[in-house]
Amino acid sequence: MKTPGRTKIAALLSGGEVGKDVVVKGWVRTKRGNKNVAFIALNDGSTINNIQLVVDLQKISEDALKGVTTGACICAKGALVASQGGSQSVEIQVVNIELYGAADVETYPLQKKGHTLEFLREIAHLRPRTNTFGAVLRIRHAMAFAIHKYFNDNGFAYLHTPIVTASDAEGAGAMFQVTTLDVKNPPRAENGEVDYAQDFFGKHTSLTVSGQLEGELGAMALGEIYTFGPTFRAENSNTPRHLAEFWMIEPEMAFYEIEDNMNLAEDFIKSLVKYALDSCMDDLKFLNDMYDKELIERLQSVCSTDFVRLDYTEGVKILEASGQKFEFPVKWGIDLQSEHERYLVEKHFKKPVILTNYPKDIKAFYMKQNEDGKTVRAMDVLFPKIGEIIGGSQREESLEKLQARIDELKMDVSTLWWYIDTRRFGSAPHSGFGLGFERLLLFVTGMANIRDVIPFPRTPKSAEF
Ligand code: 4AD
Ligand code: MG
Predict the structure, then answer these.
(1) Ligand 2 center to residue 391 CA distance, Å?
(2) What is the largest CA-CA distance in the chain?
(3) What is the pLDDT, as a whole number, of residue 85?
(4) Pick from 51, 213, 26, 217: which is nearest to 129 by CA?
(5) 229 CB less than 6 Å from ligand 1?
(6) Distance (Å, rounded) from C-alpha 313 to C-alpha 461?
(7) What pLDDT is stored for residue 87 in this prediction?
(8) Cα dihedral 372, 376, 381, 384 sign
């Protein structure tokens, strides 16, 4: 379909026909000039590049340009001509300008360039209009598309798993409760506890921390599925890598062993990075120049190197022998911190690492138990600058072993019976993993804070926009 009423700036800059009359609509980035001519840089979000509007002040009165200041939204008509100077190939010789919406010079917060990312977080409603967030949001879109494309091309079905759930069994983190009960005066059962039988769903419910458990039900019928949806964790972790609301991609595959799972994770993530390099180069170049001079090089290198595959036990040995002073001391059995993960990836191997066979006590109940009785068939993919980007495992398919682990952990089976049923009826070896979408975007954009790769971040004490 043709864009109604205008041509997008991306299309004009990448192959607009010189001499043709065109209409563009967008937001003014800058206006400069002298008494004879005004130059307006216009951006419409279709590309990081602006188109230059050249206004001959003999033909268009300065009055008509009054409200045309930084931030204003305008419609401009004119002929597309070869550019006289500058870096762009074409510009527009304007014959008519219409002001859609002015932006007061005194109060428009993006009047000047060069705001800090911290300041821009306080104006998250306007920051999409900056070059940085335009670039990040276009890349975010491209990555979402590439994810669906990858799975569709490989025969995976997109499964929509629920956002409201009664099971709190994943153990991935604290959950946000969902309730319509009167929080000031909830109904009480005879024992004095809140009576969730009277709540909307007739039981205690929360926002999901992961779609995996339902994803497994899908894989046990459709073979290969993936989820891609919002997940919620009420941990008070104020770090540059944690959000309370983030998006996760969770493929789940019948008949995959842990090696197949690792192969898929590596191929998947490489293909996403390659897609970004192929499709988002203008935006990547901008981010590379502005924020992270090694970004593009790092992306290219990930596409062309084999990821290291290493046992957790070996990883711990390397860390212990490193002589490095860590904030959290290392010994077998600990949950690795991002400082440990990044040491392995950035200092020791200098490439992505897939760590496997973690101690069972630091991993979820559903992971396949190894013969040694101590470790499980978990796999975390560790990335430069990020640490853990993917967490996954082969799943325990044996009913007895799964049941024994559930008993050992004294888990509440009343909300899990349906999950255990998969092992009762037609169980199969299977595996899956979860990729944090914003962690992927941190890597692909080179941004340093996860709050800057999601349009409206949700973090402790922050849900304004
Ligand atoms: O390692 P996690 O907790 O694994 C699961 O939830 C499994 N159910 C996945 C599966 O096997 N299907 O989370 C998976 C990924 C992490 O590796 C990380 O990239 C991301 O989700 N993640 C977060 N991203 C942003 N903010 C948070 N608070 C995150 N917690 C996890
Ligand atoms: Mg994890």
Answers:
(1) 4
(2) 86
(3) 73
(4) 26
(5) no
(6) 38
(7) 72
(8) negative
Closest ligand to Cα 248: 1
pLDDT value of residue 432: 98
| CATH number among 3.40.47.10, 3.40.50.720, 2.40.50.140, 3.40.50.360, domain 9-108 | 2.40.50.140
Tokens 């590596």 sit on residue: 266
Q: What own/partner pairs with CB < 8 Å and gap ≥ 24 does 82-90 have?
A: 82/18, 83/52, 86/52, 88/13, 88/49, 88/50, 88/51, 88/52, 89/13, 90/12, 90/13, 90/16, 90/18, 90/51
* Ligand 1 contact, 387 CB (< 6 A): no
Ligand 1 atom 31 nearest Cα:
436
Q: Do 9-108 and 127-174+209-452 agree at the fold level?
A: no
User: What pLDDT does residue 456 have?
Assistant: 97
Q: Please report the pLDDT score of residue 172 as a whole number.
A: 66
Cα–Cα distances (Å) from 426 to 23, 122, 225, in that order, read: 61, 52, 17
What does 46-93 look like in DSSP terms, one character per residue? SSSS-EEEEEETTTS-GGGGTT--TT-EEEEEEEEEE-SSSS-SEEEE
Fold of 127-174+209-452: BirA Bifunctional Protein; domain 2 (3.30.930)
Closest atom of ligand 1 to 209 CA is 6
Q: H helices then E strands: how many in the chain?
A: 12, 16
Strands 387-394 and 375-383: antiparallel
Q: Which amino acid is at 307?
A: F
**Domain map (residue ranges) of the chain:** 9-108, 127-174+209-452
- The closest-lying atom of ligand 1 relative to the alpha carbon of residue 237 is 28
State how beta strands 308-311 and 353-359 pair.
parallel
Residue nearest to atom 21 of ligand 1 (CA): 436
Which tokens is 458 given? Answer: 């949700």
Residue 5 φ/ψ, nearest 5 degrees: 80, 0
pLDDT along the chain (465 residues), means of 10: 94 93 98 95 98 96 92 98 84 97 97 93 97 98 98 98 88 88 96 96 96 97 98 92 98 98 98 98 98 97 97 98 95 96 97 98 97 98 96 98 95 91 98 98 98 97 92
Strand partners, 66: none
